[in-house]
Design a protein that fits this description.
Rossmann fold; four-stranded antiparallel β-sheet; 2 domains; Alpha-Beta Plaits; seven-stranded mixed β-sheet; single chain; alpha/beta
């Protein structure tokens, strides 16, 4: 089967919202191609693993958001609606770039494989390694391996926001904690929490495809005795509480559920959040403080920020 591939030219700041927009319009999947996500070849150990430096040299200057749609009779109307939405976004967000749109026809094999060339094993912290299932890697003594096949779910681990969340989890998990991962995507943060010693992890996502991918990754990493993957909206589907909540989504959602999320974190519990572009740091900080959280640590990496905050005891 052939598919229509749309490519939107944007910026790091605009890429997540553009991707969200394309999924809203019915994309079968999206992939963000951003130079900022490619491991730095000058850092052979620590955050990134060594990769072929030619990969970075061949990356486009624009951030490209790829999306794939079936070529049916509704596609022309969808394109008209999408152009109108992108025009509004251009008017509202001066830092989103041109939002130029290109199209081409691709085979099914092309769109399921295209992003894999950018995804190589890498370290997050000293001994936690994220490795795609199709790549070989020789582990050093003490390394813990997270094997991930993201499918079309967000969360390969290469994005700065995912790396910051995992680094913060490494700092705060001591062993036995109850963890909730909101918007689990590929399940990478839930799996990291389990490997770091969490006693139990609830991984929640409203997207059934993400739930399927996360469930497969959890089983593949042999942590299904620790992690429960559930489809639904955490705020509506459960009254469970946790010692640590982690989420890597967009700023607007963090701002909206900061207060109701408090009911799912025990007094003295911790909240790790990212997916926040630097320009919105103060908005999210204000929302967390107004919800009653205490800001413990703020981490910046590239164009992104993560917060470690706590519910007062």
């Amino acid at each position: 089967m052939n598919w229509i591939e749309l490519v939107i030219h944007t910026t790091t700041a605009g890429s997540d919202l553009v991707s969200e927009c394309l999924m809203e319009f019915g994309a079968s999947g999206t992939m963000i191609e951003d130079r900022a996500d490619i491991p730095d070849p000058s850092k052979p150990h620590g955050i990134w693993e060594i990769i072929d430096p030619r990969l970075l040299e061949n990356m486009p200057e624009d951030v490209l958001v790829h999306a794939w749609f079936p070529p049916d009779e509704s596609f022309p109307l969808l394109m008209d609606r999408l152009r109108a939405r992108l025009a509004r976004m251009t008017a509202e967000h001066s830092d989103f770039g041109s939002l130029r749109m290109d199209t081409r026809t691709v085979s099914e094999d092309s769109w399921t494989e295209v992003w894999k060339k950018f995804y190589k094993p890498f370290y997050v912290g000293d001994h936690l390694v994220v490795k795609p299932t199709w790549e070989d890697f020789t582990a050093a003594p003490g390394d813990k391996i997270i094997e991930i096949d993201p499918g079309m779910a967000f969360g390969s681990g290469t994005h700065e926001t995912t790396g910051m969340c995992i680094s913060l989890l490494q700092e705060i998990i001591r062993g036995g904690e109850r963890v909730i991962d909101v918007g689990t995507g590929s399940g990478i943060l839930a799996i990291a929490a389990a490997l770091l010693g969490a006693g139990s992890v609830l991984a929640v996502d409203i997207d059934p495809d993400a739930v399927r991918v996360a469930s497969e990754n959890v089983r593949h990493n042999h942590v299904d005795s620790v992690i429960t993957v559930r489809e639904g909206d955490l705020l509506k589907s459960t009254d469970e509480t946790c010692d640590i909540c982690v989420t890597n989504i967009i700023s607007d959602i963090i701002i909206a559920f900061a207060r109701p999320l408090m009911d799912h974190i025990v007094p003295g519990g911790l909240f790790v959040c990212s997916g926040i572009v630097k320009e919105r740091t103060e908005e999210v900080r204000t929302a967390l403080l107004e919800a009653g959280f205490e800001i413990i640590k703020t981490v910046f990496r590239g164009e992104w920020v993560a917060f470690l905050s706590g519910r007062k005891a």
